[in-house]
Amino acid sequence: MESFVHLRKGKTPKRIHADLDGLKDDELGRGGFVGRTANMYRRNDPTAYRTVGPLRPTDVLSSELKPADATDAQGGPLLMFSNADCQVLLSRRSEPMPFFVRYVDGDLLLFSHKGSGLLETEFGPLPYREGDWVYLPKACTFRQVPATESTWLMIQATDEFRVPPAGTLGRHFPFDPAQVTIPEPFPIDDDGRDEYEVRLYHEGGPTSLFYQHHPLDVEGWRGDNFPFTFNIEDYTVITSESVHLPPTVHLFMQATGVYVMNFLPKPAESVPGTERTPWYHRNVDYDEIAFFHAGSLYGIPMPPGLISHAPQGVHHGAPEKARERARRKFDEYDRVDWSVIAIDTRRRLVPSAEILANDLGQH
Ligand SMILES: [Fe+2]
């Protein structure tokens, strides 16, 4: 943040995101929430608009979507959003994959929303359960064997996912890499079939490779490029008593143009007058996806599996009614118990036809 001066003009509360006195707090900020910023105090709700044209927020219940793998073991996940840096997909598989798979266009980061099971990988078996993040390096061969129907939010980046720089928090960063689960080698014997299909998912694909031996035949491995799981229960949430912190403090992993965050249960801000609901904004440099995993906001349940897309430059934020309620119930609640997964992308995301067809039409 290169500016030295932070101006104050007209009617502004003394504290940031607090004591609004009926005004609407609207942030016009660059670089997500870490660049130059103007907080504007408006008379009216900036999300009270109707849209004409393609840039509009969409809200979809993922349970209404029908990925091919939900009904056909041979099927694949459903594309929900894409740009040049990433694809966001949905999988809902209950049958074991009858093939092995590699995502060869980039690293894969998937969030286990529902269900449990096993990933057989080249590096060894990796069990997964609800709340797990699963990281699979680009072109890693694996096979999903669900124990129960498993809903995954999947992000394929065209670049590598990396742990963000820890900055001033050092090893107290919310993501403790010592808490990941890493597979142990477990070579699998041939089972007598003629061929083993390894399906390569890629742009213009798929392509299948057929081996006459079991592709998960690794006796041992060494190095620093491997799959792992990390459960959101093990994420350390950073909090403040007097300001609702920006989403960037909850950054979990990142790839070029793609930032993945965990918004998890935490104590609510306690200093009177503090706004506990994220302020209105139009995140001008990032598209945002929020995936509601579980929980509620001050007693109002959030629909599990709801996926919301807010295009960059278009105002969004919790409804005014929810803000008023949060202020009214300030003394009644001392915690936020939401679990929301957020994906911010530098380039515009294009919603797929299935997303547009299932938009709840709230805008
Ligand atoms: Fe946002």
UniProtKB/TrEMBL annotation:
Any one Gene Ontology BP term: tyrosine metabolic process
SUPFAM superfamilies in the record: RmlC-like cupins
This protein's record includes keyword Signal: no
Binding site for homogentisate: H316
Taxonomic superkingdom: Bacteria
Binding site residues for Fe cation: H281, D287, H316
Enzyme active site: H244
Membrane-spanning ranges: none
GO cellular component terms, A-Z: cytoplasm
Alphabetized GO MF terms: homogentisate 1,2-dioxygenase activity; metal ion binding
Keywords noted in UniProt: Dioxygenase, Iron, Metal-binding, Oxidoreductase
Homogentisate 1,2-dioxygenase N-terminal domain segment(s): 104-231
InterPro entries: HgmA_N, Homogentis_dOase, RmlC_Cupin_sf
Name assigned to this protein: Homogentisate 1,2-dioxygenase
Organism of origin: Mycolicibacterium brisbanense
